[in-house]
C-alpha cells in the first residue's frame, strides 16, 4: 500500500512549480563536496561537487528542468554555488562537476566555467543520450584548451559506450556504482570492470570506482589496479600495499637517479606505465621519479613496471 501511495504522490507532483521554486530560492539547495581518493596511496585526487534538493531527487529535478527548457538556468545556478563553495576550500585538487551535454556548448555555460578551467574536471554522463559524440568533443575543445579535464561518468552502463570513450579521450573514467556494487557477486561484472580499466589506462585515463560503501568493494578496486574511489565508506580500511603496487616496488627495489620522468605514488601501475609510454619513454633502462604530491620519494625502473603490468 505504501508503494502505491508513493507512486500516486510522485505522479501528482507539480514539477514545473518545483523547478521554478528552486530557481527562486537557490539557497535551499545543499552543495556537497565529495573526495575522490587514491586506491594506492590514500592521496586526494579530486573533489566532486554535488547538489542536493531538500524535497526531490536531484537527477529528476534536472531532468524536469530540461523538459521545461530551464536546464541552462538551473545548471548555471547550481554551478555558481558549487564554484563559490569550492573557492573557499584550500586545496590543490580539481573540482569535478556534472554538466549536461546538451548545454555544454552554450555561451553562458562556457563563460561561467572558463575562468575555472585549470581547476576543473567536467563530467559527461554515459547515461545521457548523445547522438553525435564528435560534436560534443568539439564543444568541449575550447574548455580543454583552457586546462579543463574531462571525465566519462557512469561508465559501463550507459548509452555512449566506446564511441564516447574514443571521441572524448577523457582524462578520467568513473565506473558506475552498479558495477562497483556487483563486482564481488558476479565474475562477469568483474570482467567488464577489468576490460574498461584496461581500455581507459591505454588512452591515458585514470579510473575511479564510484559508490564505495564497503571495505570489500575498496579491496576489489585495489586488486583490479583501479586508480581511485569515492563513496560513503565512513572508515576506509588501512591501505595495504599489494605486491604489484608502486609503493611496494619502491620500498623493495630502490633505484638510483637516471632520468627525471615523474610519476605519482597515487597512480596505479598500469596508469603510470601508459603515461610513460604516451610520453615516448620506452627504454627498459629508463627510470622515473616517484612523487607523493610535491614530495620526491624515490625512483622506479621502467622494466619493473612492465613486469608488474604483465602479471596483473
SSE layout and pairing:
Elements (H helix, E strand, L loop, with lengths): L1 H11 L2 H10 L5 E9 L5 E9 L5 H10 L3 H17 L6 E5 L8 H7 L6 E6 L7 H13 L3 E7 L5 H8 L3 E4 L1 H6 L4 H16 L3 E5 L4 H9 L4 E3 L15 H7 L8 E4 L4 H10 L8 E6 L2 E7 H10 L1
Parallel strand pairs: 2-3, 3-4, 4-5, 5-6, 6-7, 7-8, 9-10
Antiparallel strand pairs: 1-2, 1-8, 10-11
Helix pairs in contact: 2-3, 3-4, 4-5, 6-7, 12-13
Notes on the protein architecture:
It is a single chain. With 312 residues, the chain is of the alpha/beta class. The protein has two domains: 15-230, Alpha-Beta Barrel (TIM Barrel), CATH 3.20.20; 246-311, Alpha-Beta Complex (CBS domain Like). It is built from 13 helices and eleven strands. The protein has helices at residues 2-12, 15-24, 58-67, 71-87, 107-113, 133-145, 161-168, 177-182, 187-202, 215-223, 246-252, 269-278, 302-311; strands at residues 30-38, 44-52, 94-98, 120-125, 149-155, 172-175, 206-210, 228-230, 261-264, 287-292, 295-301. The strands form two sheets. An eight-stranded mixed barrel has the order 1-2-3-4-5-6-7-8, surrounded by four helices. The longest helix is centred in the N-terminal third of the chain and has 17 residues, at 71-87. It is globular. The N and C termini lie far apart (51 Å). Residues 1-10 have low confidence and may be disordered.
Rg is 21 Å
Q: Residue share in helices? A: 40-55%
- The N- to C-terminal Cα distance equals 51 Å
* The CATH class of the largest domain: Alpha Beta
Total number of strands: 11
- The sequence of SSEs as H and E is HHEEHHEHEHEHEHHEHEHEHEEH
Which percent band covers the strand fraction?
A: 15-25%
CATH fold annotation of the largest domain: TIM Barrel
Describe the largest sheet. Answer: 8 strands, mixed, barrel
Low-confidence stretches: 1-10
Q: Name the overall outline.
A: globular
**Which structural class fits the helix and strand makeup?**
alpha/beta
Separate helix tally: 13
Amino acid at each position: 500500500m505504501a508503494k502505491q501511495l508513493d507512486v500516486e504522490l510522485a505522479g501528482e507532483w507539480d514539477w514545473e512549480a518545483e523547478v521554478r521554486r528552486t530557481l527562486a530560492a537557490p539557497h535551499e539547495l545543499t552543495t556537497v563536496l565529495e573526495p575522490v581518493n587514491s586506491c594506492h596511496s590514500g592521496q586526494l585526487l579530486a573533489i566532486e561537487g554535488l547538489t542536493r534538493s531538500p524535497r526531490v531527487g536531484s537527477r529528476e529535478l534536472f531532468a524536469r528542468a530540461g523538459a521545461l527548457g530551464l536546464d541552462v538556468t538551473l545548471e548555471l545556478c547550481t554551478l555558481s554555488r558549487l564554484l563559490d563553495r569550492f573557492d573557499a576550500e584550500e586545496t590543490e585538487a580539481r573540482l569535478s562537476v556534472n554538466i549536461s551535454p546538451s548545454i555544454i556548448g552554450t555561451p553562458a555555460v562556457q563563460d561561467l566555467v572558463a575562468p575555472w578551467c585549470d581547476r576543473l574536471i567536467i563530467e559527461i554522463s554515459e547515461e545521457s543520450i548523445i547522438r553525435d559524440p564528435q560534436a560534443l568533443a568539439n564543444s568541449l575543445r575550447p574548455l580543454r584548451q583552457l586546462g579543463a579535464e574531462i571525465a566519462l561518468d557512469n561508465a559501463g552502463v550507459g548509452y555512449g559506450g566506446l564511441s564516447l570513450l574514443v571521441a572524448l579521450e577523457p582524462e578520467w573514467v568513473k565506473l558506475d556504482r552498479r558495477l562497483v556494487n556487483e563486482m564481488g557477486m558476479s565474475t562477469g561484472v568483474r570482467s567488464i570492470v577489468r576490460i574498461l580499466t584496461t581500455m581507459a589506462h591505454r588512452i591515458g585515463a585514470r579510473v575511479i570506482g564510484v559508490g564505495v560503501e564497503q571495505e570489500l568493494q575498496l579491496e576489489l578496486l585495489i586488486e583490479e589496479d583501479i586508480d581511485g574511489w569515492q563513496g560513503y565508506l565512513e572508515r576506509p580500511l588501512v591501505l595495504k600495499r599489494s605486491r604489484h603496487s608502486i609503493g611496494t616496488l619502491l620500498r623493495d627495489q630502490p633505484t638510483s637517479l637516471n632520468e627525471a620522468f615523474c610519476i605519482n605514488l597515487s597512480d596505479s601501475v598500469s596508469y603510470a606505465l601508459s603515461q610513460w609510454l604516451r610520453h615516448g619513454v620506452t627504454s627498459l633502462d629508463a627510470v622515473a621519479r616517484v612523487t607523493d604530491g610535491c614530495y620526491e620519494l624515490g625512483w622506479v625502473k621502467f622494466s619493473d613496471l612492465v613486469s608488474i603490468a604483465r602479471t596483473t
